[in-house]
Amino acid sequence: MTTFGLLSLLLTLAVTLWSSTASASSDYHEQLFLQPLPQSSLLASFNFRSNTSQQAFDNQHFRYFPRALGQILQHVHTKELHLRFTTGRWDAESWGPRPWGGSKEGGTGVELWAWIDAPDDDEAFGKWIALTQSLSGLFCASLNFVDSTRTTRPVVSFEPTGDHQDVDGLHLLHGTLPGEVVCTENLTPFLKLLPCKGKAGISTLFDGHKLFDAAWQSMSVDMRPICTSDGDCVVQIEQTIDMVLDVERSKRPRSNPIPRPLSNELLACDTSKPYNSEDNCFPLEKGADAAWSISEVFGRTLTGVCPLTGSDGTQEHSVCLRVPHEKQVFITEGSTEIKKEDGFTRCFDPAPAQPFDLSIPEQTVDIPVPREEPILYAERTIVGHGQERGGMRIIFGNPSNTTAVDFILFESLPWFLRPYIHTLQATITGRDGIPTEIAASDLVTSTFYRPAIDRERGTQLEIALSVPAASTVTLTYDFEKAILRYTEYPPDANRGFNVAPAVIRILNVENSAPVYIRSTSLLLPLPTPDFSMPYNVIILTSTVIALAFGTVFNILVRRVVSVDEAAALGAQSLKGRLLGKLVAIRDRFRSKETKVE
Amino acid sequence: MWSVVQWGALIPDEINLGTMYRLNTYPLIHTGFFHALLNALALTPLLERFEAEHGTLTSIALFVGPLSTFPAGIYLLIEKVILHSNTSVVGSSIWVFLLLGSEAIRTYKSNPHFSLGPYKIPTWTSPLFACVVLSILVSNVSFLGHLCAILIGYLFGLGYLKFLVPPEKILRWIEGKLNLLGRLPHYISVDQKTFGRYGVLPSSNNAANGNNGTPMNFLGTNQRLDDNSRRTYISENALLPGQVHAYFTGSEQNIFRGYKQELQTLLNEGRKAEDQEAEVEVTPAASNKVHSILQAAGLKVATQKYEYTSAGITHQGENIYGIIHAPRGDATEAIVLVAAWKTADDELNLKGVTLALTLARYFKRWSLWSKDIIFLFTPDSKTGTQAWIDAYHDLHPESVQPLPLKSGALQGAVVIEYPFEHHFQKLHIVYDGVNGQLPNLDLFNTAVAIAGGQMGIGANLQEMWEHNDSYEARLQTMMRGMTKQGLGYATGAHSSFMPYHIDAITLQPKGEGWEDEMALGRTIESMCRSLNNLLEHLHQSFFFYLLMHSNRFVSIGTYLPSAMLIAGNFTIMAIALWMRTGYYPESKPDTPAGEKSKSEKTSKTGAQKIEKAVKVNETALPERLMALPLTLVTGLHLLGLVPLWTFNNIFHQYFTTATYIFVVVDIVLPLFLAALLSNGLGVSKPIIPQQYHLIKSFALLLLGLSLSTLATLNFSLSFMIGLLCAPLSFIGRLQGPAALRYGVSSLGLVLLNLLSPPIVLLGVCWYTGVSVETVLTQAAFGWDVWGMWTQVVVWCVWWPAWLIGCVQLGSSIF
Known about the structure:
The complex is a heterodimer of chains A (597) and B (814). Chain A is of the alpha+beta class and 597 residues long. Chain A has 3 domains: 26-244 and 318-344, no CATH class; 377-524, Immunoglobulin-like, CATH 2.60.40; 534-589, no CATH class. Chain A contains 13 helices and 29 strands. Chain B has an 8-stranded mixed β-sheet with strand order 5-6-8-7-9-12-10-11, with helices on both faces. In chain B, strands 4-14-13 form a 3-stranded antiparallel β-sheet. Chain B has a two-stranded antiparallel ribbon with strand order 2-3. In chain B, α3 packs across α4 (56-64), α6 packs antiparallel against α7 (126-137) and α6 (93-110) packs across α8. The interface between A and B is large, with 70 and 70 residues. β29 of chain A pairs parallel with β1 (88-90) of chain B, so a sheet runs across the interface.
């Protein structure tokens, strides 16, 4: 059974996009999708999409497509681009599968991959560096640090999502910055790429304080060409922001953001307890999801609609909400509500140029939104201890009782982490909880391995794996930690070194929309020298030299010669004459009769 | 050829009325480039200072004039009139020493002595030292000339030469006429001179020690400890201890009481059926409640079962832990808060567990965490954390379950204890780890700073409830710390974290006062906030230290030499013995005698021949017979594995018996070995004294090597074993008349037996009142569970060395 897509709407949308045959040459759409998640979380998924005809793009006639980005892409011959900014981690156990099937999110930090048109690898890499440098400036991110050690060329993990005429001439390059902290400085340039630039429509909800207070958030920029069968091509740019907000936390007023203890009267206590009294309280955790409204959660209301949307006349609703139909939803006057047939989705069309708010009261419902199971759980941790060696442990859990999951595990490891692929081992645990060790080759169907070169490139490892139904596979391998050169340590050397998240591409999904999972990034502690040591050494050496110098100098310089020998030095031999000259020169510098003070 | 040196040097014989100019020219003339350069280097700072103090004109006047002439005059007087010799002098070092002399006098006025051990050395002598050192180091230096300069310098410094300074009126006139101020770039005018106002800064230790005399002149004072220790300080700036407001108050206490009531009820219900002995054991119902409370609070919860067997006792339990995911975090770093149901002193830690639960619920609300926070609930303080932390790093034994849920790299751990009902007075911070490992001093300092500075609770350490910061109290604190470190056992639930380089401490409320659980909660909240600030793993501060007070410590650089000296003594002795075996001193009288008695039977010529051969032998180096000593020393060290195995593997009820058996073995075994050795082990000829020396040399070499290595890992253990082994350097095979030999060696053996490992163990047990069985069970447990290796040092380093010492002494009987 393929329980594809918890957020079926999103996925359907993704699918339609995937196979869409864009008829219009130039259009713009935006949509906000809201879904309450367990543990009083709220998923808000913003999507902005626009098409520009290939011809207009080539002639630099930019209307919806941002000129700043378009010119960069043209300059470096990038045919398809995917850029991701992500913070936090998606809690698959509570929240279920990822929005967009994970295809619109990246690993922690910044992730970038692009198909570049170039005659050979070297030229492609040159353009790639130009691309990263330009994007670094455009998005205020440290993308310029994506150098050869952080660049990989994945073989099977990614496939172009656009329609390209000449796929063979395209080079896929992939780079990650797991340590990059995504913040408002990245959001501002992101908003500037939008046609309405955060002034109207759903993008008015973006507030750096709320967005970056989210438990998880991901920003993405995708550019790809889409062609119809008759050769009509459009260039599509799609920008998304997904975030999971903690409703309780977001509702705190900005004037009093500190979660102070509640006053005694406001405490929800379990009154059935025999000891329950004024100063004894066993707290009662809330059963129903908390009430919320857009203005509370985002700190502002939605301002109308972006006037550029839907110029082609296709009807897409700009705000959608996934709650059971029986649940009450209050909306601002003047906007329309459309309930979908699936019983859980309803969409809203806000009135233009008017603030729009939406509020949901606290209410227990009989039929909750069905909770879907992700296709695969993945967790990656570093095990072992010590300065020299360690191990990587990746756990894949297949929740399905019937279907095996095939997927590709893509790891790009830094060069200073040297994996021993021969130690790759697999343990399979069934529902009974008894682990069985099996040869890794039984699960691995194919492997692509490109070993690291010190200081030049990292390890690239792509493994095609299969996890049987209702079981958990633990994959382990050992690695060695390299010792860096003194100058290669960053200022915060003792923090550890970031290892990029693993990318997992699930293969046997029946539709063509790719499903991706990314593990969390890791912190690898490397052997770190005591950086005050050189200082100690300098002090010690100086002392020793100071003590030794005087005596040694004296011994070296002073010559003890008897009177006879001194006379003999003046002998007529060549050596004697030379020595005589030397003595004469020396005497010129040093008066024999004179004592030096 | 006209030589400027010949022309201008101060040559006593050349001085007459016409050549008086030499008295002033000689400092300007040098014999070579390096002479000039070095003098210039020394003179520049001194002269610059002088110029700044007295003005440019005065300096020129003085140095061209009287300050050159006066030393020269004295020099001539002494050299010509008294010594009747004719050594010429040249060079500006005369000025250097003159200035040094005057500076020294001024230093002397503000700071009369510097102390070197018990000696007070007047500071005015320093130029004299410099003068002597220079004369020794550099050839061709006029010692007398420098002395004269220093003398004039002293006089100038004391102010007797003030009359030489030209009157200000004249100086002003010159200055005005020549417009020096405008023309010379760095000219210091008459009005700008400072008269030494920025001279020697007053030294602080002068006034403070005024009545105390020199600080190091007598033992046993705080002053002495102050000199060898430092005040603690927060080295990692990111920690910022106590800089945040702790909000854990108000209605959180109601929830605390609610949770406590709930757990208390469940504990009581579970106990009714059972006997009263298991009063501190946690019941499954209470444990499940912890699980459900954590889950309700929104944490990710998991459990882990484990089982350990040691000395025939099985320890099992189940850990429960919950993780607060850092909002926006990505599971790269984590902090651990531990609450064990049973404290390190085997008391029921109900309030501690409840506090941890309340904090978990409270912390979940905060969005500022940059690291995951793991709340770990273990059934006891000995095994639970060990099982958990081993499994966290996937290094757990078979009997321990792996962890289903993990987070990132652990940055620190705090253990919470509150095993009583009443309010507390002070916090006791326990910090010792297994095998003498210590947490980073910054973590301890943070706890002290928060408890004392922010909460006003006050912190204790090493069970020193009353610490008046006196010499005795400080020493006692340090001794207790060293004992714990030396024994290397786990002092609490935090100890298991240390081998994994995770800094951890236990906070124990002690005494009766008016601080309640919320104060402890706020302390922990503040500590978590500090740890949360960390950008890097704790690495800034010390990992090797001895604490003598909560705000004073001795660093490794100060204390390590003591253990190293003790360990070094064995090595030095071993090398000395090795050298001695290269000579013949003992064998010389023996061999000829023995040979002679044999040879007398043959003939006189034969005897002479042999005598010759012996003489030839004496000149050659003797061969060292190393096979037997090496075998013996190696064998005895390997023999140490027997007691090591025995004391770690037999059942706990046999420990006492085994100890007594071992005492007997320790008495008999050396004598037996000594007897065997005297008879050459029955296989070879009787062994010669050289081999005894070699045996001792090897044994001491190994001991010295092991102890000096150990000192860098576990200073206290190395120090204690070193002290106990100290007699081994001095005992050996005795010589002399039989009666004396027997008497002395028997007495020696008795005394040495008192220092044997089992007797020391019995003695310590008797002194502290702990049963031998308890100690050994704990030791075996430490070996099996904590990875403690104190036993290895005892049985494979100390015991073999001791045994060989006894064999040496015992061999004098046979």
